[in-house]
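Researcher: Re-running this chain for the archive, since the previous output was lost when a drive failed. Same request as before.
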Amino acid sequence: MKFGLFTHVPWPEGEQPARLFAECVEQAALAERLGFHSVWIAEHHFSRYSLGSSSLVLAAAIASRTERIRLGTGVLIPTLHNPIRLAEDTATLDCVSGGRLDVGFGRGTFGYEYGGFGVDETESHARFRESVRIVQGLWTTPEFSHDGEFYTLNKLNLVPPPLQSPHPPIYIAASYTRQTLEFLVRGGYRLCIAVVQDTERSLELCRRYLALSADAGADATLADVPFFRYFYVAETEAQARADTAAHVNWILDIMQWRRNFSESSEVPYSIAEWRRERAELPLSFDYIRDNRAFIGTPEQCAAQIAELRAQGVEYFGCNFAMGGIPHEKVMRSMRLFADEVMPRFRDAG
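Model: Regenerated structure tokens:
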């Protein structure tokens, strides 16, 4: 079974971005030493929810400190980029990392992120599909031309080309919309499962992906579908809860708070003040623990992973660094996972 590391690089009030970036790189380097297959970085903009606004730059920093671990974008938002530049940057990162890049694309983001970039959110489906096709075309086709709804390209030659042939693997983050699933199946892309969906809903999405693939004559499996979950393992269940509860609640609060902004964002404001003024509560820690997170002892977490494997999942991604959990606790949990959980699944390859 393959294991990945995933992070949004959260930015709670009072924390310094430079230090959080350095800790993220250190966590990725540790993941390589512990035998993780990959490290994935999210892209978000204008929010304390994530420092991943330049996730490819951060991935390059990780590449410079590692040798084997694969580097994933979980996910890039192509609608917020010029696809030519995106093809150039990803190809360059693939080259400098020695061909270790996995490129995940996704459409989902918040309205003020689209607004900040001056992109019409109602066009996001069409822009997303066109941008992904352009990036793939530039990666693979000399003198690539394209005449589309949003972009016109005439005989462009990508410099540099990606190192991997024919191109880095492409993953698509899908929700429950059939439109996105059909796009990724038709394109021969791989599905990836986000942390923000309930586990049972995510498994149903996997089943729909397999069914659509079979209908299209494709021999798809879940072997290369990264299935990301909020994750934390500690010596006791009580310790796991004590270490994570406030940080999971911070994630839930930020996710609820940022939905209130159609412009600007929550960055200049105080979360404590907003908590006093809000009219309704978000989901609870207990709900997330029961439906989206694997938080507990090595035995409990291993049992949950085994349940996923019984459903065909062979690629599990761990979001240890949730909502500002201190770096030393993240590193300790990663080591405990590698010592007490990962060995139980080595027979799966």
